[in-house]
């Protein structure tokens, strides 16, 4: 302690925490980062981990350079507050901080609190910022003007930090904090720092030999500030925290500066020849200084307290020999004027003057959620418009197949048994692998399905074993086993498992429907897969027609077939255009958020979507109208064409065969696309389920570690003669504020990595339809606006059971860390169905 006996707040201590794995996993799951950004973010996470170790775990010098490290870490925590959520249910990272004032004992360690909460970490680090400022200020020699200014400024900043924590700590720490973070403690520390700041100003004024009238005001206010600090430190809730030395110094300085203020006022009285008041004030100053000396170290305020005795002796001598004035009654004297020259400086961001956000490329979670909603709206529009195009194209193909077009036109111009259009269709089917390729794809699906099902079974087994272990110990120890039950913690995990079982069940139904469609078209696909000779022999020969290739109906129909082909080509391009539109709406959201704290995602998204997709929607409408016109023309001219034809029984059988082959060609490509999408679906789902299994394993391991810690604590209590009740998880005990939270229940996967579930084809309804979980609801975060999760209301009927365009199933496209509420109808495949409700 310096000769000025300034008091420095002890720092909170913590242990090392690995931020790299959980933060990296969270960012990868929530944010769609490019390869360049991935490297940048990975480097930032590593730097943040190093910065925490340096700021919180390594010894800190009482110097500005050390303060820069701590404030930079705090600034970074504030910067990522709305970008990287750290909580018990989202991205859990356990931070353990010990009480700053608790010195521990022989049998018990220092009181501590462990929480999976980023706001708790910010509160603890901010406390250390204020504490380190007090250390640096208290260590100033106060020999130069700059040193005195530095001390006064740092004490004021420290007072502001503790005042900020006093007002906000209970909102930041979602549990009873350790005593050093209680509002009463922080209020006392803020008052003490303010008093020491005023004292630093007094020392500067005293050394600069300011006029006594100014020194009176400064010293009197210093005494008042110390008196306020003394009262705050004497409250029942906190009076047991302070060292005896602290109480003595604060009491001594309260009395000492009261004496000093009276001394300076006596000097003013001397200038004004008011000997009676001068002696009265000096007499009071002597009394106060003698009492203060009993509390203060020998060299603290020694110069001023010594001067009081000398001034009193000199003034008394002068009055006895010269003035002979009556000494005024001290109680009748006016109170001393005061002047507060310091204040608790508000906490501003950033605290560090050279701060630079390491995660500048990561947008706030609110913006990210808004972008996800925008992507959902955009995906829904793409689904609708692409679905309309596909439905109308399939309708057009079906009508043409029923009319045996264009194969019927080939018969008119050629007597060849195998029409050119069928020959081309057969060549395309064989080039794509034919029926052998479809059979190969069908053979792969069951193994892929079983692999995913086995992963879910193993995940469910781990959860069941953990619950059984917890229930056994709960029955064994009864009320002493008071940690949170497995049912309270594993609900979201079981819902995830149930959701994925529902997805697999839906996919399995889709597989069966694709198989049924394959069987219905097997004969046609087998024929198209044969060589040309075999195909020709399977088609009945044609009879002589009355219609020739020069017929007006034939010419018109050929022209219309050309328009049909143009429509198909145009739609392929239009579908690609719909899927390939890229737009960056983040800047729009950021601008809107800067203008207003309330973000109207719906309005901004709809305006952006209309701007981008308006012209494409018009092209879709035009294409559908053109199809209606062309198909009406085809019907008209085909009726005339049929009237001109002469047919027979053989001709009818040939026409039926050609229609079947044309339909088989369309079915082949549809089935091949379905099977390829199904294979991709199962392959994409596997790593997601593996990650879910790993997170469940991490959760089980954390619960096992928690169980061992709790049993060890119970054994220690038995050894020390306690009942064990005081050491329950989540309860305050003499040596620990310990709260156990699930370590890994962040099982939801963001939209970038989750393949959408596959619905059944529209033509057949499944008897068992597992429920699609309702939209997830976000847990309330302190100080964070709640995003609106957009849920599309329209799901068009598609020709394929596996969506091939973005956003086909936006119900599952939700941000990371949101838990799904219980389904509205029971899912027989979800393990949660047989789990008793807590």
UniProtKB/TrEMBL annotation:
GO biological process, one term: mitotic cytokinesis
Coiled coil residues, start to end: 557-584
A GO cellular component entry from the record: endosome
Record field: compositional bias (Low complexity): 784-793
Keyword Amino-acid biosynthesis: no
Record field: compositional bias (Pro residues): 754-763
SMART domains: BRO1 (SM01041)
Chain residue ranges for the region called Disordered: 754-793, 813-838
Record keywords, A-Z: Coiled coil
Domain named BRO1: residues: 5-400
Organism domain of life: Eukaryota
Pfam family, one: BRO1
Protein name, as recorded: BRO1 domain-containing protein
UniProt organism field: Angiostrongylus costaricensis (Nematode worm)
